[in-house]
UniProtKB/TrEMBL annotation:
SUPFAM superfamilies: CoA-transferase family III (CaiB/BaiF). This is CoA transferase. It comes from Roseateles aquatilis. The keyword Protein biosynthesis does not apply. GO terms for molecular function: CoA-transferase activity. Keywords: Transferase. PANTHER family: SUCCINATE--HYDROXYMETHYLGLUTARATE COA-TRANSFERASE. It comes from the Bacteria. InterPro entries: CoA-transferase_III_domain (IPR050483), CoA-Trfase_fam_III (IPR003673), CoA-Trfase_III_dom3_sf (IPR044855), CoA-Trfase_III_dom_1_sf (IPR023606).
Amino acid sequence: MSEANLPDDSAMALRGVRVLDLSRVLAGPWCTQTLADLGADVVKVERPPKGGHPGGDDTRGWGPPYLKDHDGRDSGEAAYYLGANRNKRSIAVDIASPQGQVLIRELALRADVLVENYKVGDLARYGLDAQTLLALNPRLVFCSVTGFGQTGPYRDRAGYDYAVQGLGGLMSVTGETDALPGGGPQKVGVAVADLFTGMYATVAILAALRHRDATGRGQVVDMALLDTQVAMLANLGSNYLCTGVAPRRMGNAHQNIVPYQVFQASDGHLIVAVGNDSQFVKFCELLGLPELPLDPRYATNSQRVRHRDELVPRLAERVAARPRQHWLDAMEAAKVPGGAINDLAEVFDDPQVRHREMVVPMDHPLSDRLRVVASPIKLSETPVAYRLPPPLLGQHTDEVLAELGHAPDTIAAWRKDGVIA
């Protein structure tokens, strides 16, 4: 998308909000991408190439796959990085250098929000910690994203989504039961601890901005992957707290609802998601088993949960006798919830996904092939806009430093000294 064709951002909800993004990988960038989608000016700070290290957000090199350039060759921009960094401007600044620290403080003085995911205490070594920056800019919302938070016995540990999924209990309830082939703990297919933390961080920042606008005071937001992972156990966490019994892995079945799981049809799998007793009656009718809801063991969901081991095999036998599409059509007609299990090619070709415009093409300096997954946020008055493609490393360094009032020759000298790139 060329500058001349950039959409007017005057109707965007976060227009005028300045975000200084000192985060990398996923949780922090996911948060700042959401803020950017809503109109915030996000300046992503990355490390310059140095000592053989290519510099930049680590995810720039997390491939293949990579974006194909204009000639169809790998561009060096990893798909992983592209998925979490649109609508941002990139500057490359060495914060380990005294001058680099001065530049970050200058940016923090102008910022409304700062997001960082350094290890606890790391930024204090550079004079860029929350206490120091809030003293300089009391209106700043300073959001730290770490594995375990700023306090507690694990505060100094590095945090990784995979480890937190295990430590936080998610893998204990994800995967097939031990008694079946392939049984055992499984991680979720995407980094949900990171992604949920990014979304919770976004909510917290918006709440802090509302408080700031009312009082003039910024604050510190302390986000931890482990806290988020424990919170997102949701009904399963509540199940344990109410009973003292740890939920077990149940594969594709639901802990609290029956039948709510994957079934095998004659030619593939489908999901059945019966959420109440009337839907169960309809499901049994289309299976040709109208007597089941009359059985006291199956008449209510609570009874079906208690007798799932008897009920589910009877349902599964009927489902297995017909093709998947037969059941999907029948369930749609009867308004019984469920659906197909699509791979990603099928997802992005789905008519509903296409109608909702969940894929957005964007011009990119290296490629005319960039497509990104759209934001799911649909706002009638302040819609999301796709203004800037994921930036190249340091693409906007000169632009941003010029906005701070620095002259071109000064910027050139800093680049020669390795302070910036």
